[in-house]
Amino acid sequence: MEGPIHPMMLKRRDRGKLDPAQRSSPSDIGQRSVRESMRLEVPFQDHPQFEQGLLACTVIIFGADGDLMKRKLMPALYRLAYDRRLSPGFVVLGTSRTPLSDEQFRAKMLDAVKQFSEDTKFDEYVWRAFANSLFYVAGDINDSQLFQNLGTRLAEIKLARHTSDNVVFYLAIQPSKYVAVAQSVGAVGLGRGDGWRRLIVEKPFGFDVASARELSSQLHRAFDESEIYRMDHYLGKEALQNILAFRFGNGIFEPLWNRRYVNHVQITAAESVGLEGRVTYYQETGALADMIQNHLLQILATIAMESPSTGFHATSIHDEKSKVLRSIKPMMPEEVRRRAVPGQYGPGRIGGEDVRGFREEPNVNSEARTETFAALTLFIENQRWAGVPFYLRTGKRMPKRITEIAIQFNDAPLAVTEGVSVDCASNELVFRVQPEEGISLKFLSKRPGPGMTLRPVSMDFHQASSFGERSPSAYENVLLDAIAGDASLYTRQDMVEAGWSVVEPIQDAWREKQFDFPNYAAGTWGPAAADEMLARRGHRWRTS
Ligand SMILES: NC(=O)c1ccc[n+]([C@@H]2O[C@H](COP(=O)([O-])OP(=O)(O)OC[C@H]3O[C@@H](n4cnc5c(N)ncnc54)[C@H](OP(=O)(O)O)[C@@H]3O)[C@@H](O)[C@H]2O)c1
User: How far is the CA of 68 from the centre of ligand 1 (A)?
Assistant: First the structure.
């Protein structure tokens, strides 16, 4: 392959393999012909059997009988097999307490794939080949015998299947058990071998700065920081990765991407669903820690970061995001009152159906103080963003499921804009993360006919129709990257701690106060106080 290649031109799988000398600056992209960039694509889909693309490895999944495994991990792994993206030496070794034979485990995983693979056709041939790579060991994490058994099974599989000695440990278990697993893995010698070792840790990572730091230091006793992959599956979403491509692969918007032109930014992650069974976890966690500390702050960092001057690889991307997160000044208690709004839903109607309030949900404490909604105004104190409000909002039981980022630009100063409704921003760039990935740009246009009446119109990019192919799920992307050794879509210790530094003072202030919950009806966009928070600066939430 000649000349420099920009990592974004490659299929995700191959990015980790890029030689630093082959990385190019973003400006190089525009100088490449479309034909040349297409030549760099790897035609995965054309191979009749699993191709030898990725390194062979064993993924040991703790919590293999749990909800995450069934709903997300197994469907994602099956899809990777379906797309021929796994090597023949790829093996999954699941473990949890429930006694299951390999065959019973495979049968359960088959049910999960059939139930939760939303947009993938079930293919008996692919499944049979893939199912042969699934193995299971039952045992309790607190029992050292489990880890001995895993070691024995790993050795047997390696001999029988000619797999390599590369191992990913995936902790899909309760966070209170992360340290026990990592230390037992180390104690029985599974943490080292002829091949590489990687540890994927699910969220939540700690519950404040001190606990996150302590968790990292405990994990470091068995794994090096470079081997720890902290999961934030939002980073695996195609639309989020596309923000980097949009910002740094194009020359148009970057000159406007600063406090001179951007009036404010709104980041919304709304869900119409309620608890979906995860009652104990959610009741103790709340919207702030469940969504804002990780997903929404990662989105903010993606929007606000500088272009990594040393190239698009994990370390430089993490460095830039970390700088942004550390530039958010934590709120003082009196600021929390003005710049942070908690909410909890009461009964209401969504999609024409009556739904109950949070406190009436099964197994929820009738006096629960958990916030199911949170809205914040944050400021990034650096040269680029000083004084620009970043509004973050997330909630359950909202009118619809939507995750989007709206960049609102300053209005034009001229009188030609007379006659335009003051209700809407004239220039707005919106990244839609879900349900339909895309980007739209709103601007004013002259209404046909006499006079100069302006009306907002928009230019839309729809990812699905433009590319005509399915976007991989977030878990497909992040799993593939961990196997390829690319941590770009994972978070690092300092990023996690910076996130907690933003959230912790708000958590502390909210714990001290008794709120008048419920304060929004299910099926609405949250409490009135969240609207008032924006209105004080002359802004209003998008309700598209
Ligand atoms: N579910 C999601 O959508 C989701 C989303 C984001 C993050 N996460 C994170 O993913 C992790 C797992 O969540 P989950 O919803 O899958 O939990 P879950 O449904 O409660 O499953 C927990 C799993 O851990 C196993 N387990 C529990 N105690 C064990 C022990 N002492 N020894 C061995 N295995 C044990 C259980 O095995 P048995 O059933 O055999 O007892 C089960 O397989 C959590 O950290 C969660 O925060 C989950």
Answer: 7
